[in-house]
Write a structure and sequence with these properties.
- Helices cover 50% and strands 18% of the residues.
- By secondary structure, the chain is an alpha+beta fold.
- Helix 19 packs antiparallel against helix 20.
- The protein is elongated and about 185 Å long.
Length: 847
């Protein structure tokens, strides 16, 4: 706002609200005018009375006034240059007081010197001159009240004293006039000073309000030029106040697309007194100094000062508000477009908002449901309990998530999955409650279907497991007779070379069939998800050494050399037993499909992915490129089945699946007639703290802490089996050992009676028997105190992993699977019968 009181001088910006500074600057702004008037008055006044009064006294008076005026002008120039502020304001107030008092004394000098020589109208002229000068002082110096008072006292009091000392009673009226005028001037000056102070204080208060406003406040004149520009306008629009003053507002901050409209509005108002946007809030865009446009809310008001109109613009930056409104609109559109139902209530649970999905799902319009309590749409039977439960949860500061029964407008009830939360205000009071939910009916139906499907799958898996176990048992039972009696032929009288060859062919075919059965069952277990893995760090250097030891006899038969290039400890994360199975299979293939006298190398290298690659390279027959795609197919031997190399065609399939179960992958690079390189990649791991001992595939535990009996030379062995063929085979096998008495029973009950009567040293027990299985027989015998020194050995065709684990946990000291290996059976019995020895741990091949 233009300052109407200070025209020439104004204090610095940091004294914007210092009243004393503004009063002093305003007073000094009048000094050039005061000095000019003093010079003119002294010269013209002297000319009027020149020759009427004594010239020396008149000249002295004029000289004093002109000298005082000159001194005042010099002081004014020093003040302009000094531009005082702060504590120096009081100093300059004192200087001005001295100057004003001196100036008043200079004016009083003439009347004091000339009144004694005056008569007629001259005394009135001199007194009138003093009163006029004092009146001017009241008008121009009153803002510095003390200086004005000093001027009046120095101007009017000396003539009063001079008249009083002259003793002329006729002049008493002049004294009274001068004294009364002095008091009147001082009083008027005081009130003028107070009025000026009030004006400044009001102006500063208004300026403070404008400066602290969060709106940009801009005043323009009727030509559209800026006459005031508050600090918020500087911050918002980029122009400083000094830069903006005098600029045409429409060309400065108005968007080019709106300038013509605003210019037309101002012209219309000035011409017709009607404004298109006056006293209205409108949203438009403003132009920053840097050229960017931003949204604002604009209000224009007008006021008239004299004959001119002024307009004030109140501008609010609504960038943030528009962004919030845009986000709210986005959220509203998202809520309406969402297929999830959204309801928002106040802090007491009364609905404020529903989205389209909620309206469609429940069937209520906004008019029907807005303002209703949220329990209005719940199933009536559970509404009260649910309301209490949800309210308690929210009051504890937690969201409620669960299944809610909702009720549609038509009365039908359905289950929803609801997430009920809340929003608190600044007073930590619950302001809003929201529920985001979906129809859960289909999901519940799906879950029920999945439960039924899972139950059916579990039954199918159980049936599959039982089938595999049964198949293992049924296939191993006849193989037990084939391989068992074939082995017995080797213990009979010397055979002819042809007979020995026949026996070896029987054993070879039977064992190949057993290998095929084992691998088919293994593949079925893997595909059925029945393989359990224990992933841990495995030292490859140690593992390869163990595998070489196991595979070396097979390599020696074909004069194939084996070499490990792993010269430092490296580790992968895998199941040690299954990784050993994978490596043994790859080594076995590298030997079987190699040339006699060939070579096999094993190496390991870290990959860029962090995985460890283990490679098995041979110098064998290689793989035809056309067959590479069939390599991992079950029962597909890629044509080598036409040759003499035996195999099942399942080994690589099992190897691939086991590798993938351990989060690895397998691949091959091969060149026909030059060899192949099979590799597996597994996650790398830290080297184990100590070498891990080789773990047998199935270990028969040591005997318990029960006392070990001395068996002597006449050991009694009881064999219980429902198969006469198996009984016959074992009888012949044990006939190879002298000093053993074999008792046999074909039924469990008969076996229990024989055990009670003869208290055998060892009981060989089949598992699958009619009427009572082997576990029930074992429990009864272990309950008999007469059999506390008896060793129980399972002799069964149940060879699945879970069967072996179950048997060992049930209390069998050894678990031997059919088909029997005669040496294994005899070694197990010999160790159990050895004086002072417990039944030693035995290793049984995994099916």
């Amino acid at each position: 706002m233009q300052n109407l009181l200070i025209n020439t001088l104004r204090p610095a910006d940091d004294q914007e609200c210092d009243v004393e500074a503004h009063l002093l600057y305003a007073t000094y702004s009048q000094e050039p005018l005061n000095q000019t008037m003093a010079v003119i008055t002294a010269v013209f006044g002297g000319a009027i009375v020149w020759g009427i009064v004594p010239v020396p006294q008149l000249s002295l008076w004029i000289a004093a006034v002109l000298g005082s005026a000159a001194l005042g002008h010099v002081q004014y120039q020093f003040f302009k240059k000094a531009a005082p502020s702060g504590s120096t304001i009081k100093k300059w107030q004192k200087i001005f007081f001295v100057q004003a008092t001196t100036h008043g004394a200079a004016w009083s000098l003439g009347p004091v010197l000339l009144l004694p020589h005056s008569s007629g109208v001259l005394p009135a002229f001199f007194i009138g001159t003093l009163l006029c000068v004092s009146a001017v002082s009241v008008s121009t110096v009153a803002k510095q009240f003390h200086a004005m008072r000093g001027f009046i006292v120095a101007n009017l009091l000396p003539p009063v004293v001079a008249i009083w000392l002259s003793g002329d009673s006729k002049e008493l009226m002049l004294i009274l006039i001068l004294l009364a005028s002095s008091m009147a001037f001082i009083a008027v000056g005081y009130y003028s000073n107070q009025s000026a102070r009030t004006i400044y204080e009001t102006q500063f208060q208004l300026r403070g309000i404008l400066n602290s406003s969060q709106d940009a406040i801009i005043t323009i004149d009727s030509r559209g030029r800026v006459s005031d520009w508050n600090p918020r306008a500087e911050h918002m629009l980029g122009w400083t106040r000094a830069e903006a003053l005098g600029l045409v507002l429409n060309d400065t901050i108005t968007s080019p697309k709106n300038r013509e409209y605003f210019q037309y509005g101002m012209k219309r108002f000035l011409a017709l007194g009607e404004g298109l946007i006056l006293n209205k809030r409108i949203e438009t865009s403003a132009l920053h100094k840097n050229g960017t446009e931003f949204p604002v809310e604009l209000t224009f008001t007008h006021h008239k000062l004299g004959r001119h109109f002024y307009f004030t613009a109140f501008i609010t930056d609504i960038t943030e508000r528009k962004a919030i409104e845009d986000r709210l609109e986005l959220f509203r559109r998202v809520f309406h477009a969402s297929n999830q139902c959204v309801g928002i209530c106040d802090g007491k649970g009364y609905l404020l908002y529903q989205n389209h999905a909620l309206e469609k799902m429940l069937g209520y319009t906004d008019a029907e449901i807005i303002g209703q309590h949220f329990s209005f749409a719940l199933a009536e039977a559970q509404a009260k309990d649910i309301t209490q439960e949800v309210g308690s949860c929210i009051r504890s500061g937690k969201n409620w998530v669960g299944e809610l029964p909702h009720r549609r407008k038509d009365g039908s009830v359905f289950i929803t999955m609801s997430n009920i939360g809340f929003i608190k205000n600044d007073l930590d009071e619950i302001q809003y409650i929201f529920n985001i939910w979906t129809d859960f009916s289909q999901e519940i139906s799906r879950r029920n279907e999945l439960a039924l499907a899972r139950e059916a799958a579990d039954k199918a898996n159980q049936a599959k497991s039982e089938f595999l176990s049964s198949m293992s048992h049924e296939l191993r039972t006849p193989l037990n007779a084939i391989l068992g009696f074939a082995q017995m032929l080797g213990y009979e009288a010397p055979l002819t070379p042809a007979q020995q060859d026949h026996v070896q062919e029987i054993l070879k075919g039977g064992r190949h069939l057993l290998e095929l059965v084992n691998e088919v069952l293994e593949l079925a277990k893997i595909e059925g998800g029945h393989v359990r893995l224990s992933l841990e760090p495995v030292n490859l250097e140690d593992l390869i050494t163990e595998c070489f030891d196991l595979i070396r006899p097979l390599a020696a038969e074909r004069k194939i050399s084996m070499q490990s290039l792993i010269t430092s400890p490296v580790a992968v994360r895998a199941d040690r037993v299954r990784l050993k199975q994978v490596v043994l299979n790859l080594l076995s293939n590298a030997i079987k499909y190699n040339y006699t006298g060939g070579n096999v190398q094993v190496d390991a290298a870290i990959q860029s992915s962090g995985n460890m690659r283990l490679s098995v390279t041979d110098t064998g027959i290689g793989i035809h490129p056309d067959k590479m795609g069939e390599l991992f197919q079950a029962f597909n031997r890629l044509g080598v089945e036409l040759g003499n190399t035996e195999g099942t065609g399942i080994g690589l399939t099992i190897t691939q699946k086991l590798t993938e179960l351990m989060h690895g992958k397998i691949g091959v690079v091969s060149k026909l007639n030059h060899g192949s390189c099979f590799w597996i990649e597994l996650p790398g791991d830290a080297i184990p703290a100590a070498p891990m001992p080789a773990a047998p595939m199935h270990v028969v535990p040591q005997l318990s802490d029960e006392p070990v009996c001395a068996w002597g030379n006449n050991a009694v062995i009881l064999y219980i089996d429902d198969s006469p063929v198996n009984l016959k085979l074992v009888r012949q096998i044990l006939g190879l050992r002298s000093g053993m008495q074999l008792l046999t029973a074909q039924t469990p009950q008969a076996g229990i009676e024989l055990a009670h009567q003869h208290q055998p040293d060892i009981v060989l027990l089949d598992i699958n028997m009619p009427g009572m299985d082997g576990y029930a027989v074992l429990r009864q015998m272990k309950a008999d105190t007469h059999l506390r020194c008896t060793t129980f050995i399972a002799l069964t065709a149940n060879a699945m992993n879970q069967d072996i684990e179950k048997g060992l946990n049930a209390g069998f000291h050894s678990y031997l699977t059919k088909p029997l290996e005669i040496n294994t059976l005899l070694l197990t019995i010999d160790r159990c019968l050895a004086p002072g020895n417990a039944c030693a741990a035995m290793q049984t091949p995994e099916p």
